Amino acid sequence: MQLPENICGHAPLEIRDAFKAFLDLPTAYDWSGSFPTVTPKRMTPEFLSGRLAICTAEATSLITCFTSEGWLEPGTAVPTTKGMSLAQHIVRPRLPRDEADEIFDAILSWAETHNEAAVGDIRIKSLFLYGSYLTGDGDVGDIDLIVVTNEEDLTDQGLLQPEHEDEVAAAVSALEAISEYISPATPLDMLKMPDATFHRVYKWHG
Predict the structure, then answer these.
(1) pTM, whole model, 2 decimals?
(2) pLDDT value at residue 192
(3) What Cα–Cα distance (Å) separates residue 198 from each residue in 11, 40, 73, 141, 159?
């Protein structure tokens, strides 16, 4: 995303850091069902007051402004997809579409190569795009990607082992090594973005 000159009267990078710190707070998940549900984190005046060194009244007004500008969901103070993108923003040149397309092709090749050559049990089950690359912008800030592995399947079969976590980490590291413009996330991160649009671009047929 391209940052505006200011966000609600504050320096964009200052607000970006505040959103990042907010998203880094622990997220509560309910694991009682077959698939976890998330309890959305709500940005509070107390959090902003401490983070930005402003009074509570000013922080309350700031939350209202964030909501009106689309950074927070109305009535809940939960970051929108726009707010999530802000938290992940890195200051660097935007990527021309043709270069982004080359990286996207490399991502698909990575998934196929991993699944064909992996010596362990972890496979790349699905890849979902979201964000600016999915919307077809002429240039993009990064390629936002949800990486779904077969960990859930292994769990259902009672086969998931601690070493599988290392396999996942190694696979994601190989993905990130393709380009600094790749921003991988997990299926649990999808639960934090209920208003986002996701498009599956890869499915494992193993």
Answers:
(1) 0.70
(2) 78
(3) 30, 19, 19, 17, 29
